[in-house]
Write a structure and sequence with these properties.
It is built from 22 helices and no strands.
């Protein structure tokens, strides 16, 4: 924690300081905590996608035409720790503990309950002024404005905000709720003589914060999934760590808090499922598939990137939930949604590929996109011992690669089938076959040279498979017909020249 927090002044004999603890002691520290997990920019309703995470396809990471290896998966054990760090839980918890150790939170609790015990349960009047001061310190004073506007009016207030402003509000809300929950938890221990007052203050604070969920979910559009996932994670983890003390009155209040968190968590989960349904409708009804498959020359389609990014967002959310509570069931629904989305995406790519009239380009498109999905979304299909610089293909990718080889290069070797004619006719036919073979290779190379295989490992694998089939077959043919060596010599039809031509394929 950079810097030294100022000490809250001791309350005076008449308790005046306790009523309104000084402002600004912790605000800057809370604002300085950056929540990378809440700021990934998804674009549900646009046709562009910028990869922000290390697990997303990005023209700004690695090479301009590559995507990451399966080793960058979000659901690995190391990713769970990274996921927790994304929400900076440790930093925010440290701030909350300092607020308690300085006596700041206790004085806010006392001020809230001393203002008017009768009004405290309704959070109006003087207690509401205490909440304003408390929320201002947490950088979420605007949440109370949303609560006061009620329902659609709060939504209208948020609708006037830009997408970036909404994302900023979500990040501030996550920071604020995290500090509130950890502050309350720090005050709940068996011998605390103000437990009921802490419970009332905690309920007022958390109830006020949850008003943002109902207002924000219908408004979030272009950044929706990542924002909703961020709030869902925050609400679920808050539910998991809120204590249920033995003290009867306070236990009732804390159970009410947990019920409110559970209710909003379900609302956010429904919003996640709804958002994914909207995403499916968007990519399903996109009428540019055929044009873009042809124009993209087989590369990973933007809709595939979009859906994979959403899957990675959900996998990251699962990793965070499992990190905080491995035995909790909050992540089970998301895991099912992830698996369903992966299956849907595979089926979608297969169906949309049929819009491509060129079978060679169709299978290259399916190979690229299936490899992309498998690498990032299904790392369990790759053994952990497999080297980073090696390519391993799933059965689907192997099938697509074989289909591409058959429809694209099968006819090439047919040009040099063994002749059954004897003597000069035999030599003439074989010489003519070599010319036809070379022409077929050159034409296919020319047609496929600027098609795209973005991943360099997959590109080398495919080039090698073509060389194994075409050049190796050609070498065997020349070995079986040594009389043709003089016709090949150092000319354009030598195996070495053909290998060089094949090495230029798929650069885009």
């Amino acid at each position: 924690m950079a810097g030294r927090l100022a000490t809250v002044p001791e309350e005076s004999a008449d308790g005046s300081t306790a009523a309104y603890p000084p402002r600004g002691l912790y605000l800057d520290l809370i604002r300085s905590v950056a929540l990378s997990g809440a700021q990934i920019r998804s674009t549900l309703f646009s046709h562009s996608l910028s990869g922000e995470s290390r697990s997303s396809y990005s023209s700004g990471s690695r090479t301009s035409d590559s995507y990451p290896s399966h080793n960058s998966d979000c659901s690995s054990g190391s990713a769970q720790s990274a996921a927790a760090a994304d929400f900076c839980t440790h930093e925010l918890k440290t701030i909350a503990r300092r607020m308690v150790s300085d006596g700041y939170t206790q004085r806010m609790v006392k001020a809230f309950n001393n203002a008017s015990p009768a009004l405290a349960s309704q959070y109006g009047g003087q207690p509401n002024r205490v909440l304003e001061s408390w929320f201002l310190e947490l950088d979420v004073d605007w949440v109370l404005q949303i609560r006061e506007k009620h329902g659609s009016q709060g939504q209208l207030w948020l609708q006037d905000k830009s997408a970036s402003s909404l994302q900023d509000l979500v990040a501030r809300w996550i920071r604020g709720l995290t500090v509130i929950v950890h502050s309350i938890c720090e005050l709940v221990f068996p011998d605390h003589n103000e437990l009921e007052g802490v419970a009332r203050f905690g309920k007022a604070s958390i109830t006020g914060m949850l008003a943002f969920v109902d207002a924000a979910v219908p408004v979030l559009k272009a950044e929706k999934l990542q924002a909703v996932l961020g709030m869902y994670i925050c609400v679920c983890t808050s539910y998991m760590i809120i204590p249920v003390p033995m003290h009867t009155e306070s236990r009732i209040i804390f159970n009410e808090i947990r019920s409110s968190l559970a209710r909003e968590g379900n609302s956010l989960k429904n919003a996640i499922f709804s958002t994914m349904k909207e995403a499916r409708t968007l990519v399903e009804e996109d009428d540019l598939w055929a044009i873009e498959i042809l124009r993209g020359r087989g590369e990973v389609h933007r809709n595939a990137r979009l859906m994979v990014n959403y899957i990675l967002y959900m996998k990251k959310a699962v990793a965070m939930l499992d990190h905080f509570a491995p035995v909790h069931k909050n992540s089970s629904g998301l895991k099912s949604l992830i698996n369903d989305t992966i299956d849907y995406l595979k089926d979608l790519l297969s169906r949309k590929s049929e819009l491509c009239s060129d079978p060679s380009l169709r299978y290259l498109f399916l190979l690229n996109n299936s490899y992309f999905v498998a690498q990032l979304c299904e790392p369990s299909r790759f053994p952990t011992w497999y080297a980073r610089d090696k390519t391993q293909l799933t059965p689907e990718c192997q099938s697509y690669m074989h289909s591409y080889l058959n429809v694209s290069w099968g006819h090439v070797l047919s040009c040099i089938r063994k002749s059954r004619f004897p003597g000069p006719i035999h030599r003439w036919i074989n010489t003519s076959s070599i010319a036809k073979f070379e022409l077929a290779v050159r034409k296919t190379c020319q047609a496929h040279k600027f098609w795209k295989v973005p991943d360099p490992l997959l590109r080398n694998e495919l080039r090698g498979a073509i060389a194994t089939r075409v050049v190796s077959g050609y070498r065997r043919y020349l070995e079986d017909h040594p009389e043709l060596q003089k016709h090949v010599g150092h000319g354009g039809s030598s195996p070495e020249v053909l290998e060089e031509m094949l090495g230029e394929l798929f650069e885009g």
